[in-house]
Amino acid sequence: MMTFVFIFFIIFFGIIALDSLFLYLTTLLFGVVIYGIFIFSNSYILPKIGMRFDIMTIFWVSIILTAISYIARKNRIV
Question: Can you tell me where the transmembrane regions are (predicted)?
Answer without folding.
Answer: 27-46, 53-72
